[in-house]
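[Discussion] Sanity-checking designs against the backbone

I'm trying to build intuition for which residues belong where. Below is a structure token string of 105 positions. I'd appreciate it if someone posts a full sequence so I can compare it with mine line by line.
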């Protein structure tokens, strides 16, 4: 009897540890993908602003058109950063609260 209880307890812990491992892996992937996204953003904006500088020097047209690329894509970067660093995973408490809310309808 004691052996069966111990095995069941270990299965629950193993399952829980596997879930934690999966969540940790997902979070690490999100951080890595965000770093790639941020690097691409910086590199692309550098190229676009350099093109603007070359065009401005050669044609004396200094209208800052790259600002639309920088601001538009910057909004995406900010939302991606929020998702990676600020957003918390759904907890069991969140699920239970939502289930009670749906049952009360």
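Best answer:
Here's mine. Compare freely.
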């Amino acid at each position: 009897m004691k052996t069966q209880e111990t095995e069941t307890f270990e299965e629950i812990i193993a399952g829980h540890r596997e879930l934690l491992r999966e969540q940790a892996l997902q979070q690490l992937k999100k951080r890595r993908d965000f770093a790639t996204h941020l690097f691409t953003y910086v590199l692309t904006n550098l190229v676009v602003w350099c093109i603007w500088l070359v065009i401005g020097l050669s044609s004396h047209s200094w209208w800052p058109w790259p600002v639309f690329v920088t601001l538009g894509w910057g909004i995406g970067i900010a939302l991606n950063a929020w998702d990676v660093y600020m957003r918390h995973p759904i907890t069991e408490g969140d699920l239970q609260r939502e289930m009670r809310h749906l049952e009360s309808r």
